[in-house]
Design a protein that fits this description.
Layout (H helix, E strand, L loop, with lengths): L5 E8 L7 E8 L6 H38 L3 H4 L4 H7 L9
Length: about 100
């Protein structure tokens, strides 16, 4: 019985202020170089990437909430007047046009 070969991709995140995380997905490698096997492999890869994106978004949203919580601890005035949608849209990016 031949062992099934697997391909693997890993995403890792680290930050000085948050816990690191890593996501690893294994995908069966194509058993032959046929178009059908390659198509099946690419379909599985696409699904795995979509799943990883969902996990990454959840993890980063959790970390954004942790950052906001730390920023407002002991400073209730900091929590007032924050546009949550704008904060999430611009999280981790330099915002242009702020004075």
């Amino acid at each position: 019985m031949a062992q099934e070969k697997k391909s693997e991709f890993t995403v890792s995140y680290s930050s000085p202020s948050n816990e690191p995380f890593a996501i690893t997905n294994s995908i069966p490698a194509p058993s032959t170089s046929s178009v059908q096997d390659k198509t099946t492999y690419l379909s599985a890869l696409r699904e795995a990437v979509t799943s990883a994106q969902d996990q990454i978004n959840k993890e980063l949203t959790d970390r954004m909430e942790q950052d906001k919580s730390r920023a407002t601890d002991g400073n209730p005035a900091a929590a007032k007047g924050v546009d949550e949608a704008l904060e999430e849209e611009n999280y981790g990016e330099e915002v242009q046009g702020e004075d």
